[in-house]
Amino acid sequence: MEIDVQTRKVTPSLRHYHEQARHLARIVSPFMRPADALIHGKYFSFEDESDGESDSDESDLDKLSSSGHSDEEQSYTRAERQELKYQYNALLETIPDLKTDIKLLDEDGLTTLGDYLNSRLKAARGTDGGLIRDEVVRYLYYGGLETFRDAPDGLDKFRRGWYNEYTARMLCPQNQLARFDANREKFCEMILNGPEDDDEGILSGGNFPSLLYDQELADPGDKLKGLLRSPYFLALFKSLWTGPKSVTVIGGRKDKTSGKPPIAWKYGMTQVTPRSLAYTAVQVRYELTHLMNFATTDVGGYDGFELFEEIVGLFEDPHFQWCKDTLAWWNKEVFGNTERAYRNRRKTSRKPTVAEQLRAERRRAKKARKAAQPEL
What we know:
The chain contains 20 helices and no strands. With about 375 residues, it is mainly α. The N terminus is likely disordered.
């Protein structure tokens, strides 16, 4: 196992781990630490965790005292433990055989496995960033402003971010656009020098960047209006998950085509999830910056982990109408033309065609003839 972590060669025993581990950043979190999730999943009982008021914290920590993990566990908040629980269950669900293998590993083995999974996770994150590195500039004309039609087709990475008017506007929080447009140079200088006083926290994750908004729908009086409906963000999401050729296809591509399959087809993805949206947002924002290496933080106090958490948190209540409408919109835009979606629509959303009615009549007639035949 130690050798596998250090090399690119995949042994037969790790082949399933190799492929599925690359998907973890996309469907779980680009910032997850698999070793932590594995160790806490095995040694810390998640069964008593609940959203309601309880004394489960004390009882769970008592359980840990005998294993030597109680002191470490006390450093985690309830929200962090809930996230570890989610990540642990996602690992078991995503990676074949892990439910069996984890029983055979001690803490050192879990750490080694976690290091390996983390190396694959980072590799996939880097690969995915490369897939949209040019597109984040090339698709700027989807930005919703007439001036964006003059945006360059290409831009060196180190010239992006707050050093370029187009990328800077995409990074700018939606609630600061009026200020940005009034004096772009002054605003960018403030960000690059470090926001102070009332501007401190201006780039916190909860101040969603304008790249996530449909500028024609956005309304200062309704902060949810237009959020996660950006044509620009949609184009990049489709490019990453279903391939560049699907970007201009209304409803997305119908099925896989020849050549290397895009991520969604390779992993059988048929629905957009809050975490896939959050992952893509983090990737797009990073590729818009001047940073040459992936980092959690950026100038101005930005923290990618915060942005990821805040987007996922938008969907905390799945029954909230905005959540249902937003995910339905995304699924229609990205997977509306897939064969499975087409079959479901054909079964549930329209009346039978003439041909289908004729086939049904022939089946009924055939069944009646068989029933009328005397038994021999």
